[in-house]
Automatic annotation (TrEMBL):
Keyword Phosphoprotein assigned: yes
Keywords assigned: Phosphopantetheine, Phosphoprotein
Species in which this protein is naturally found: Ophiocordyceps australis
GO MF terms, alphabetically ordered: phosphopantetheine binding
Matches recorded under Pfam families: AMP-binding
Any one biological process term the GO annotation gives: secondary metabolite biosynthetic process
Protein name: AMP-dependent synthetase/ligase domain-containing protein
Keyword Phosphoprotein: yes
Domain annotation AMP-dependent synthetase/ligase: ranges: 69-154
Signal sequence segment: none
GO cellular component term, pick one: cytoplasm
Length: 166
């Protein structure tokens, strides 16, 4: 049993194979240090080989947000982001990031802007990064673990966009 809001079937299958591989190694190689065990099973290697065979060549100068738009056109309901907080489809990622990009444009963000943002790893951080790219700007991630004074100093650095805060 698993919670499909947290893991999809493919992730559960991968976890099953990792666990099976680890248990087999622990039983068959009891004297091997844990750091030398591999969770990669023959199934994982087959998966990687299959993925690499179907890999498409992406033009080098293609923007990430354009690739996301292409995916929205192909499979809007396919899951784009998996987090412990939930799942976003490509359509949801596109809609949310477009709304935020429009808001950023209204604030004056545009081509050549550098937008600092400070977020922990999350679906919302990805939405923010895609939105900033859609606004024709570049994002500058600030580490939330740094002291507040340091983050504020970096966020107000003179070369950043028009001294606006997100």
């Amino acid at each position: 049993m698993y919670n499909p809001k947290v893991l999809c079937e493919a992730q559960c299958l991968a976890l099953y194979h990792h666990l099976q591989q680890t248990v087999e190694q622990l039983l068959n190689q009891a004297d091997t240090p844990l750091g030398q065990l591999s969770i990669a099973s023959p199934w994982d290697l087959e998966q990687m080989t299959a993925w690499n065979k179907s890999a498409k060549t992406t033009p080098m100068h293609t923007c990430v947000h354009h690739l996301i738009s292409e995916q929205v056109a192909r499979a809007p309901l396919k899951q784009a982001i998996y987090t412990t907080q939930g799942i976003l489809t490509y359509h949801e990622l596109d809609t949310l990031s477009t709304q935020l990009a429009q808001h950023l444009h209204r604030l004056g963000v545009g081509s050549g802007s550098l937008v600092p943002f400070c977020m922990h790893k999350s679906a919302w951080a990805i939405v923010a990064m895609v939105a900033i790219m859609k606004a024709d700007a570049a994002f500058v991630p600030l580490d939330p673990s740094h002291p507040r004074a340091r983050r504020e100093e970096m966020a107000w650095f003179p070369t950043w966009w028009s001294y606006h805060r997100l």
